[in-house]
# Entry
Amino acid sequence: MRILFLGDVMGRAGRRAITERLSPLKARLKADFTIVNGENASGGMGLTGAHARLILDAGADCITLGDHAFDQKDMMQFIESEPRVLRPLNFAREAPGRGARVFADARGRKVLVTQVLGQVFMKRPFDDPFSAVDAVLRAHPPGGMVQAAVLDMHAEATSEKMAMGHWCDGRASLVVGTHTHVPTADAQVLPRGTAYLSDAGMCGDYDSVIGMDKAEPLRRFLTGMPRDRFTPAEGEATISGVLVVTDDRTGMATSVAPLRDGGRLAQANPQG
# Structure
């Protein structure tokens, strides 16, 4: 199975890139199943129901969220009626929606998608991500209950993401980090067959400070004082993510490759 995972969609620029380029990108890559992290798609903070529909209509099979999952209040109702949108697994139990679900690709092959939030350097404590993921993976072993299993690890600390990758090695098809908006260069297949990448990067304008227009972040760093709100940068977005190929029999990865399509990062890496 060919699984495409795209990092955090950032504001209008990211939405525009997804709506205009996702469908031809999927065709070019021959992707069987596509997951998009959409938690910053609406003004850089959260996701509205309308923007979720836009991403799904563009070709995403599943949308994952993150620590900004419910910054846009209508998502609390929308997520209950749209099973293709997942919030973090280790949110409070009373939170609406679900943190894991089994989907099917066009050929009927089953794909488990789940997401957890890290605990290190995050603004508020969440439940233990390791025990939460362990329970889900035990119930859905790749090559058994499902043909593939994907975990979106939404976290600040690279060490915590790496630890999760090794914790899941041999039990998930792909462990991919999101949240920091900066793509990493450590795509690899771990010893027991799990594809891993510390951060997929963002689908947004990289002529920015992690997706935000440069002026206000620079002012705050230089003066220590805020003046305006952060606003997403609106130049041409780079679609950033990863493509993993899995063995349907075992559910393990046979290859993994980072993706950079369009925008500044693709210009810097024309072979990507």
